[in-house]
Structures are given as C-alpha cells and as structure tokens.
Design a protein that fits this description.
The protein is an alpha/beta fold. Helix content is about 45%, strand content about 10%. It has a 6-stranded parallel β-sheet. Helix 9 links the parallel strand 4 and strand 5. Helix 1 packs across helix 5 and helix 5 packs parallel to helix 7. The longest helix has 21 residues. Bound molecules: xylulose-1,5-bisphosphate (XBP) and magnesium ion. Magnesium ion binds next to loops. Xylulose-1,5-bisphosphate (XBP) binds next to helix 1 and helix 9.
Length: about 230
C-alpha cells in the first residue's frame, strides 16, 4: 500500500475557527454598510451554515426570512454587492490577526512539507479569504505552499457536492486513493467522500454533533496528529 501523496485541507473550521468571529461579523458589517436590515447572531448563523457559500447563504436567508428582499428585481446585484463588501470586511478582520490556526495545523503542514507530501486546498470560501487567512495565521506568502487551491466559484455546485474535490484532484493529477482530505463538517466530509477520498474530520465549534460516519478518523483537533496517524 502506498502512503499519502497529498493532503487536501478544507479552510473554514478546519485550518481555523473562522465562522463565528470572522465570516459572521463580516456578513453583519456588510449588511449594515449596504443598509440591509439583517443581523445574524451566533445561533442563527450556526443554522445558516448548513448552506455553504456566502452568496448562497444570503439568497437562502432572503427567501426564507425576508420575502420583500427576495422579490427585489435587483436581488442578484444586491447579493453580489453584499458579498463583495463582506469579503472586504473579512479580509480586513483576518489581517488584524483576529483568527488563529487550530491546534496542530501548523505542525502537520510542516511535517508534510518536510516529508515531500504535496499540499492542496478545497474550500467553499472565496480565494482572497484563503490567502488572507494563510498570510496572517500560517506565514506570509504561505499560500504558495499549496500547489492547488480550489476555492469559491471555480465550481458551480458547492459542498456537499464533490465537485471542488474533483477539481483539485484533477489539477494534482492524483487518484483519490493517493490523497487524504481534512474537514470539519458533515457537508465537507460528504464532498470529500463523494469524490472517492479518505477524509479525516476535526470536530469544530459549529459542527459538533454532526454525522461523521464515513470518516477515516475523527479528532477533536490536530494537536499531536502526525502523518503516521493518517495513513491508510
Ligand atoms: C465554508 C463556507 C463559506 C464561508 C463563507 O464551508 O460555508 O461559505 O462561510 O465564505 P467549508 P464566502 O468549510 O465547508 O468550505 O462568503 O467567501 O462564500
Ligand atoms: Mg469547513
């Protein structure tokens, strides 16, 4: 049996707990900036995380809770503007150093690099959010350590669809059996497994209690987890 040739990391919830104190306040700041009378508290945001992708999440919220906004003829434009504003707020928050890597993430990445294991990212979030987070929390320029970064709208169907993992695998030119995905959520796990990957889960603050059956391993976090623990 060959060992792992590439690690494919999810970002939000996996590299760092970005949702409650990163994406959520960024959405709220965008709503205030554009005069939209929405505010997502921590509990409501936890429910909304079932919908992956910021634009998709706002559209869902409008349809479910704000029929007036959902009926606006310029809804698509409004969502695009809100999302651009949200991304700018998120990048600013992250740049202020508000979010830190979860335990063990930096160590596992360092071990993989030293062992010549290839690194990639498969995430629902926007590409600029990924580089901002890696620059601020891992090392400046560390997005270059990741050979393939699959992010945001490069695929139409977001997690739990397997498309983003298939997109990354194609660019790595590796079969799924040569890689391991690391995820924090049921949606992410379903996406990885759907692409034929083994997937380790690190349980996150918003994902505790989700269904992780089908995971190759489930950890509280990556502290003390090395490549040896992740091999098939
Ligand atoms: C992450 C997400 C993202 C972020 C927001 O899911 O659902 O939508 O909350 O990002 P995963 P954007 O960790 O499974 O990839 O606003 O940039 O879309
Ligand atoms: Mg995640």
């Amino acid at each position: 049996m060959h060992g792992i040739q590439a690690l494919i990391f999810d970002v939000d919830g996996t590299l760092a707990e970005t949702e409650r104190d990163g994406h959520r306040p960024a959405f709220n700041a965008a709503f205030a900036e554009l005069g939209v009378d929405w505010h997502w508290d921590e509990t409501r945001y936890g429910e909304l995380l079932a919908i992956t992708g910021g634009k998709e999440r706002m559209r869902h919220y409008a349809q479910r809770y704000d029929p007036d906004i959902a009926a606006r003829p310029d809804l698509d434009t409004l969502i695009k503007r809100l999302h651009a504003a949200k991304t700018a707020h998120y990048v600013r928050l992250v740049g202020e150093g508000r979010l830190v890597l979860r335990p063990g993430v930096a160590e596992l990445i360092a071990e993989a690099r030293a062992a010549g294991i290839r690194l990639a990212i498969a995430t629902t979030t926007s590409p600029e959010n990924v580089s901002a987070l890696l620059d601020a929390s891992l090392a400046p320029g560390s997005s270059d350590w990741f050979e393939v970064i699959g992010a945001g709208d490069v695929v139409a169907a977001k997690k739990p669809a397997p498309d983003i993992y298939r997109w990354v695998l194609e660019r790595l030119a590796l079969p799924p059996g040569a890689c391991l995905a690391i995820e924090d959520s049921e949606n992410g796990l379903r996406a990885a497994v759907g692409a034929g990957l083994r997937c380790a889960v690190t349980v996150g603050e918003y994902t505790r209690g989700q269904d992780f059956s089908g995971a190759a391993a489930v950890f509280e976090n990556l502290s003390g987890v090395s490549l040896a623990h992740l091999q098939p």
